[in-house]
C-alpha cells in the first residue's frame, strides 16, 4: 500500500470520527432543548399560579398596557395637528378661493342680446306696419314677439323667449336693408334665420362644453346650452357665467379632493333651466331636463340644490353653490337698471291691486315674492286661495321675473268686544 493510500484512509477515519462526534452533539442538544421546553412550561405554570392569569390573559394585559401608553402619544400628535389645522385653516381657505377665482378669469367676449333697433328714417316704421297693419301682424305672428314703434328712432322688440327675440332682431335688420317688407318675405326670412341661428347655437354649445372639458354630450343638450349665448341674468351673459363658475368649481374640487367630474357637469348644467320653456323655476326645469337625458343623480342634485331649494346631498353640490355665488356676486359681474327694477315691482303690485277684495300689495325679494293683503269682509278663505293663484299666473305671464314667483295672500279677521 502506497503512502498516498494510507493518507486517504487516515483522512476518512478522521472524518468518520468527526461525524460521530457531531451526531452525539446533536443528540445532546435535542435533549437539552426538550429539557428547556419542559422548564419553560413549568415556569409558565408557576407564573400563571402566581399572577392568577392564563397565558392569553397575560398577553392581552400586555397589549392593553402598550395600547394605553401609545394612545396617549397618538392623542397628543392628533391634538397638535388639529391646533395647527385651526391656525392655518382660514389662510388655506382664502388661498383656495383666491386661486380658484384666478383660474376663473376669462378671455371670452360676450355678445349681449339687444331688444332695440335704431333707425335713421322714421318712414321705415310705415313700411314695417304695412297697409292696414298687415306687415307688422305677419311679423309678430311669424316671430312670436311684440313690436313697439312708439319711441322715435327706435324699434323695440319684446319677448320672454330670448331665441325668438334674436330671430326677430336678425329678420328685421335684414328686411330693413332689403326694403322688401311683405308678409311672404317675412315668413321666408324667419325660416332662414331660424336655421342659421340653430346652427350658431349648436356651435356655441360645442365651444362651451369643449372649453370646460366635457365631451360625449347628447346633441340636443349641446343645442340647448348654445342658447346661453342669447341669455343674460342681471346683465351677466350665461356663457360667461357658466365658463367662470365651472373653472372656479373645478379648481375648488381639485384642491379639497372632491369629485371633479361631478362638479364640472353640475356647474355646466346648473342654469340650463333658464333657457328651457315650461312651468316652474329654472332649478326645477333644469333638473327635470337632465333626468330625461339620464344624467347621473349626483349631477342632477347639483342642479336642484345650487340655490338651496333642497338640502345639500353631497360636497359637490356645495361646491357648485359656492362657485355660482362667487361668479354671480363678484364686483361688476351683474347689474340691473334701477328704473326697470322699480318699474317691475310697481307693475307686480298693480296687477295684484286690481283684483276685487285686495286691500294692498307689496313686492319684495327682487320681485320673487308678492304679499297681498286681503279685505276679510269681501273674500273668504276659499276665494283668497283662488285670488292668490290668479295673481301668480298673471304676474308670471306678463312680467319677466327671475325665478318662480311666490304669492302670499294674508287674510285676517278680528272681532273685539267693547270694554265692560
State the helical fraction. 55-70%
Strand content: 5-15%
Shape descriptor: elongated
Number of strands: 8
Give the quaternary arrangement of the chains. single chain
Name the CATH class of the largest domain.
Mainly Alpha
Q: Write the element-wise H/E pattern from the N-terminal end onward.
A: HHEHHEEHHHEEHHHHHHEEHE
CATH H level of the largest domain: which superfamily?
Answer: Hypothetical protein af1432
What's the CATH architecture name of the largest domain? Answer: Orthogonal Bundle
Number of helical segments with 4 or more residues: 14
Biggest beta-sheet profile: 3 strands, antiparallel
User: What's the average pLDDT?
Assistant: 80
Structural class estimated from helices and strands: mainly alpha
The tally of structural domains comes to: 4
Q: What is the third-level CATH name, the topology of the largest domain?
A: Hypothetical protein af1432
CA gyration radius, whole angstroms: 41 Å
Instruction: List low-confidence stretches.
Output: 105-114
Widest sheet, order of strands = 1-3-2
In short:
With 420 residues, the protein is mainly α. It has helices at residues 3-51, 55-103, 123-129, 134-143, 162-178, 183-212, 219-226, 238-256, 260-269, 282-292, 297-305, 315-329, 338-353, 381-398; strands at 116-118, 146-148, 154-158, 232-233, 236-237, 358-364, 369-374, 406-411. The chain has a 3-stranded antiparallel sheet with strand order 1-3-2, covered by helices on one side.
